[in-house]
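Recall from the previous lesson that a structure prediction takes nothing but the amino acid sequence as input. Here we apply that procedure to Thioredoxin-like protein from Suillus subaureus. The sequence below is the only information supplied.
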Amino acid sequence: MSTLENLVDIPNTSQFQELLSKDLKRISLIYFWTSWAEPCVQMNQVVEGLAKAHPKLLALRAKAEEQADITDSFDINSVPTCLVIQGHALLARIEGGDAAQLTKTITECLGNKSSVAPQSTTSQPPTPALSSETPEQLEARMRGIMNQSAVVLFMKGEPDTPRCGFSKTAVALLREKKVAFTHFDILGDDSVRQGLKKLNDWPTFPQFIVKGDFVGGLDVVKEMKESGEFEEVFFT
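The prediction returns the following tokens.
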């Protein structure tokens, strides 16, 4: 837990939006990370160092898997990812543990804000698409997909072309363990994407389903692998 006033660990979407909207002229750094990605260890220190060196900078740390709405709204596909914004303008997007580039970007943005051209604008978390399905029909369809094979992976993209780092890791884990599975690309069906979050009471993807039952997200299944519980759950 940081003692710096300008370095905040984001607990929820509402506080995130409140902090950003307080001063639309302020330069903000949004840092997406996870505890299990090795490059994030170094970048955590870099972000904290930048916050300490630049009191005018607002540095926000968001755990990518826990803050699904924020992660999805900024289309975060891998960690670590750093976004530098001013108001609703995206000034820079830095993916991977490129500490030198992040430091240079922050220095340039704070030193001469007008010289940095916005790359795009930010938006609020996306609104689920309207569907003609009733809630009962949607749940029946989702349960049908969950039971289409012994193991089903709800992911972003296809197994050979995953659209986010978490999905890529999930596919690699199942293939490493030689688990036969089918998949469903949640990016192609927003009704299923939003519905599964409620049905399984789990806000992020990928989601692992075994014999029709939700067993967890990536962190949970990684823990199963480390504890030896994986084989019992996926092969019995």
